[in-house]
Amino acid sequence: MRGLCKILLFISVCCIRAKKTRWCTVSDAEQRKCAELAKSLVAVLPPAAVAAFARLSCVRASSTTDCINKIKANRADIVTLDAGEVYSAVKQFDLVAVAKEMYSEGGCVLSVAVVTDSSMDIRSLQGHRSCHSGLRWTAGWSLPLGFLLSRNYLSWSKERPLSQDISAFFNASCVPGAAAVAPDLCALCRGHKSFIRKKNYFCETSHSEPFYNNQGALRCLRSGAGDVAFVDHLALESVEASEQDQLRLLCPDGTNAPLSHYRSCNLGCGPGGGVITRYNFRKVVRKFITTIQLLFGRNGKRRQHFQLFNSTSFGENDLLFRDMTDKLVVLPDDVDVSQVLGLDYVALLKGLGHEGSSLEDSVVRWCCISHAEQKKCEQWALSIKSDPLVCVRGVSMRDCIKRIKKDEVDAVSLDATHSYVAGKCGLIPVVTEYYGRTCAPAEGSAHVETDVFPSVAGVAVAKHSSRNIFMGNLGGRRSCHSHLYSPAGWLLPYTHTLSLEHNNSASCDPNQVFDEVFWKGCLPGSQGNLCKVCMGGTGEAATKRCSDNHNERYYGNMGALRCLVGDPSGKSYGEVAFLEQHSLHTNILSLSSSGWAEGWTSSDFELLCADGRRAALSEWESCNLGAVPPNTIMTRPVLAARIYNFLIKSQETLGANPNSEFKLFESHQYGESDLLFKDATRCFVHTSHMEYRTILGEAFYSHVENVFNCTHSDILEFCNKDVCSAF
Ligand SMILES: *[C@@H]1O[C@H](CO)[C@@H](O)[C@H](O)[C@H]1NC(C)=O
Ligand SMILES: *[C@@H]1O[C@H](CO)[C@@H](O)[C@H](O)[C@H]1NC(C)=O
Ligand SMILES: *[C@@H]1O[C@H](CO)[C@@H](O)[C@H](O)[C@H]1NC(C)=O
Ligand SMILES: *[C@@H]1O[C@H](CO)[C@@H](O)[C@H](O)[C@H]1NC(C)=O
User: Fold this and answer.
1) What is the mean pLDDT of each run of 10 residues along the chain (727 residues)?
2) Which UniProt keywords apply (predicted)?
3) How many domains does the chain have?
4) What atom of ligand 3 comes closest to residue 503's alpha carbon?
5) Does the C-beta of 310 come closer than 6 Å to ligand 2?
6) From atom 2 of ligand 1, which residue's Cα is the shortest distance away?
7) Structural domain span for residue 260
8) Is the pTM of the predicted complex or chain greater than 0.70?
């Protein structure tokens, strides 16, 4: 008897120090699995180890929201949540994410729309009945709604929360978790209703609501309650072979496909589940997670006792963790939520108003890369009557892509090469610049609609007076390039024989080819010898040499021309310039009006043809280095419809007032060319329903892909690091 007392005394003393971990569960089934885990820990670990860090108790809550509240209030410690709820727990409740679920293909999930009726079409879901895994869940809510908004199949008035527009869009829904915030979205749910909060499961995020989570949403579809279920691709694994034929996926292009095609037929990807706790409990939880994974994970030493990622014997799926989890990755301290969940995802949640709508939502933030663009953008903002326009400064097109991803700006016009990069970074087209002769819309339609986009030409230009310069004879000379990654200044020239002595067949990296062939030059945005001819900028546009924007006076089509003629003192000049043909003539004339260099006319220049000939500027159609696909305005997917409306309103307002001082597609009054948009633009063509790959054309696309496969680029590296970019 005294011995037992001693042991009890010992345990109670030791356990004042050792923390007990309290797991929050949302159903009886989950409570049973949790209790089994607690028992198994006691069974397999020596008592001292259990006492030190593996004591587990299970706290029953009525929903995941209840769990978040309990953890916040120090009445529970730990729970696994969908990424959408992880975000709310971190942002609104100051909790921290300590671990992430990893599945066989990584830590991300694809959102899919599952139907039983193969005549359904993602483009006409309005009026149908919908089943969702949970409110604000990644695959069941945010990704599909982001998709529907980006295609403009669903419109959101912004004056009210998105949930209200959703309940008007679908005939009826079951969105577990919506009971308190949008009861209209609960009509199809089947959970037990009770006035006693703890016993009410109707439309709650609890397994006691039969239509809760991925399995519940599929149940909602199968039972005939709903016409479409939004779930993630992991849920498809549990569909029995015999049932596979009865279910179809709705694809973005309006077709449908068998369940196994989820990789090509989905509504987007986002992060999977994560484990959260209070900040000051995170170390205990990390140790606990590591321990249970070592013991009971997929390769756990004691998995014959208990399997962490298997819920079969408890009568439900996905208890404590997703059953498809391969392993848990413990997160280091002080990682930002956007590093855990991904920039794209966090920007999507902000776009959907997860943190409540704000004034910011109605503002369009345009990315401007130079002082001149900023001035033009500010004039634009004053000349329109639509959503307010704010002009935000970036330092280069690459920087704008980065900032759009980070939700610091919303849109920018990108040249063809940068459109490729932006597409790889998850941005999508809104409109494409149209360089045709006229912009008269076809009869019966309000805007120009086309999928044939006139291109511009990339050319090489030399001074008429430099007689012995031609393609093939450029070795050791000084070069001028519009800018790094520009189609005409960077991508096209290297594909031609620049110099017979310097074999360009040796390298597929344009930077390396230029470095070998030219003595020095100005390629704004690059480094080394190819910056030596650059000038930098002064005054309000002050910048160091070689910056990748119009502040560098040798940047762009106008800049490459300035570089060719040299600065007013006659120094710092190039012998060949690689640029776009479209506004060459006007740019030559404006050299003097901009106070740069006097007296130059078109006849002072000649084109260098790919075959070594020289020709007059007017002969560009037969003497060029290749076609350059048009610029495209790109944005985050969730904003596409809004940016489109904004641009079309701008175009209409400005078009209806031809006397307006401000012209969207002119730049010479600011002393530059191609500010914000190419000066050759006649109008915008709607392209948000198109893939950027289609806009660029297959030949150009694979050329750019090849080149980026053998040159290092910070921006693609940055984008490839985002959490779900590998999917
Ligand atoms: C939507 O509901 C209305 C009335 O409840 C019904 O008439 C209509 O057929 C439903 N639409 C679909 C597509 O189920
Ligand atoms: C899950 O557990 C059940 C019963 O304990 C077992 O039959 C099944 O094989 C397990 N599943 C996996 C994938 O290990
Ligand atoms: C250049 O290419 C030719 C064949 O196209 C080859 O014979 C020659 O060795 C190459 N020169 C260099 C410097 O690589
Ligand atoms: C470029 O690299 C990617 C990934 O390594 C590969 O999938 C693709 O086929 C490559 N493209 C070309 C044109 O070589």
Assistant:
1) 42 53 96 97 90 90 96 97 97 96 95 97 96 97 95 84 91 96 95 88 95 97 97 95 94 96 96 97 94 95 95 95 97 92 94 70 91 96 87 97 96 98 96 90 77 93 95 96 98 92 75 94 97 93 93 96 90 93 95 86 96 96 97 95 93 83 92 95 92 96 96 94 84
2) Disulfide bond, Ion transport, Iron, Iron transport, Metal-binding, Repeat, Secreted, Signal, Transport
3) 4
4) 1
5) yes
6) 171
7) 108-270
8) yes
